[in-house]
Design goal:
single chain, 236 residues, alpha/beta, Rossmann fold, 9-stranded mixed beta sheet, 7 helices, 9 strands, 32% helix
Length: 236
Amino acid sequence: MLKKELILQNPLRFMGHETDDILPEGGFGSVLARAGVGKTALLVQLALNNLLRSKNVLHISLDDPVKKVSLWYKEVFRHLTKSYDVKKINQLWEALLPHRFIMTFKVEGFSVPKLEERLTDLKEQNIFSPQIVFIDGFPFNETVRMPLSDFKDLAKNHSFHVWFTVRTRRHEKPGPDGMPAPLLDVVDLFDVVIQLQPEGKEIHVKTLKGGPADSEHTALLLDPSTMLITNNQKLA
């Protein structure tokens, strides 16, 4: 019962998606925001929802060590479950952990061939086989298209889909359709694009690509105190 109730809090459901599997095999999703706005928190929420659905989640961090990534998961999970029985929460947490694997790389040392080598090692030893991959800190620069294309091939070959965080900057001008600068040359590779946009004291959650047309879903907010998505237009 607890697991089902938490699944219903899935951020993508708040955005109007009928199912959680909005990305096809080899598909890309992205969470865009400026530094410190909440990209990692939303990425972890998406990852936790997949863990609750017994999906194998690979979290790759190019910024933080394993310990810090683990703390992100514990913190977001704590906020999600704060109103539930502690014993049940602890049992559920222990049940989720075998479905999660955290990898860390230095940005300059990360490449698709290196990742494929690590994945092959894990699979051949029956240690872990991901169904969905989350990548935090991948550099979206002027040369990103080729590695992203290689990444898409890797995702298709291994039958998983991928969510990226993408850092935006104040001085960067968006494209004519409002797409943020880091994705202008690669947006065709992405199925879903979600942006976290600070407006005053609020952080608005906007689907720029791949979301339903229903305008009611533009009022979603990221609560800065818990870093959870709320479907209330006003936060207490």
